[in-house]
Amino acid sequence: MKFLTHLLTLATAIMLIGCAESQNNSATVSEPLTDYSAIAPAAAPIVDGEYVCQRPAAEDRLFTSQAVEAEIERVKSLLTNPRLAWMFSNCFPNTLDTTVHYRKDENGENDTFVYTGDIHAMWLRDSAAQVWPYVQYANDDAELKAMLAGVINRQFKCINIDPYANAFNDGPTGGEWQRDYTDMKLELHERKYEIDSLCYPIRLAYHYWLTTGDTSIFGEEWIEAITNILKTFREQQRKDGKGPYTFRRVTDRQFDTLSNDGYGAPVNPVGLIVSSFRPSDDATVLQFLVPSNFFAVSALNKAAEILTKVNKNEQLAAECTALASEVSAALKEYAIYDHPTFGKIYSFEVDGFGNHHLMDDANVPSLLAMDYLNPEVIDSEIYAATRRFVWSQSNPYFFRGKAGEGIGGPHIGYDMAWPMSIMMKAFTSHDEAEIKWCIEMLMRTDAGTGFMHESFNVDDPSNFTRKWFAWQNTLFGELIVKQIAEGRLDMLNSIEIK
After folding, report:
1. Residues 6+ apart with CB under 8 A from 291
2. pLDDT by residue (tens digit) across 171-208?
3. Count of CA atoms in the C-beta half-sphere (13 A) of 340
4. What three-state secondary structure class fits 488?
5. Which of 128, 139, 162, 372 is placed for a possible disulfide with 200 were both Cys, Cβ 3.0 to 4.6 Å?
6. % of the chain residues with pLDDT over 90
7. CA–CA separation, 207 vs 146, rounded Å?
8. From residue 367, how far is each of 30, 168, 379, 465 by CA, in Å?
9. CA distances from residue 146 to 112, 129, 150, 208, 478 in whole angstroms, order as listed
10. Which residues contact 49 (CB under 8 A, 6 or more apart)?
11. Which of the 8 DSSP states describes residue 57?
């Protein structure tokens, strides 16, 4: 075990050498869109001239919302491209069809456990993102509203079981990671500490509250959860030592464990918050993960508003605001890097000692996705330069091939782009041609399945990972709904891919 730890520590140290240097100083400031128009998508199942629906039979669907079903029919009636309409109708309800387990708990409260897809556990991040697009329909469907309240209730309970955990079981069942060297409980599927796991539930609850006006979710469980979040974030500012959290795993994957006896790489306590792991569930190299720290600022400000307007808890609200302000100030001082090609950009990770890790990972929160998740807390000019950087060969995890391109990450590895990154490029774009280009690429790289996948090989989209990944499916549906809402139906209907 000591030998394995030594090897992992040495490998991490090697990765850090020169991480602040530009990966490719010859990159252009703004690259043109690659022409993939000659690439035909894989054949999709067609019977009697109609695309075959890939949804489960109605009786096998886990949850059905009449409001969502009505929206699917409305969007399908507007779309003239049959393949796009088919993909939308497969993807948008995928979370409801296959992952949502709604019930009442022992106290009669709404309780919803959400699988991530092919892994039957509930990630705080994934579950919040999976149901996010459905909130807009909650006022038209009482059952949907109750289910969404159940997700939020369950998330607060999970945080109060262990704010350092990222994924949970449906009860104290144990699981495959129970032997990890960390404070595992039977309720935990995995205990990788990630800042965003504590931010996504706040984002969802805030959106639900603004949309529905329902304050029933902000009771004692909520107050306990936000108290635990504040405590955890303060501990992980590392001002009073390394904190209580450590994590080690016996593994042959470097990014599945932490160096230095489970504490990770050293940080200088400058006000930023440590995230031991990224939203990809990979270990951070430098532990101040910049996109997640920005997400924390946004989430804490939202929590303060809820605490002030709903709970009338000025003291707890002030604690949230104070921490958000401290992190925001530290980001301005430590997160910006003056790149020789792109100018001032945001680093992916920093350590407070002056080291910068220049890259981006597809998983959200990412540098690319900051304008989607929390545009109110970032500098628009620095973000614009960062956006150009991450979608270029200067980002070591940007891959371009014969069939497509996008951002990946070490979770899957070389040449594997994540559709999530392509969707985030579209979500953060105001250029209709660029948005269309992204949607066309998503249509070309589905391997004929009608669904999004975790990642695909940029030279061969039939080589993909995870055929059932509900978050990416629902996100695709969200993207299409957004285009229609913002007046881009003609753009969608100009797509000619069959």
Report:
1. 346, 348, 365, 366, 367, 369, 370, 373
2. 999 999 999 999 999 999 999 999 999 999 999 999 99
3. 9
4. coil
5. 128
6. 93
7. 15
8. 17, 27, 12, 23
9. 9, 17, 6, 11, 21
10. none
11. P
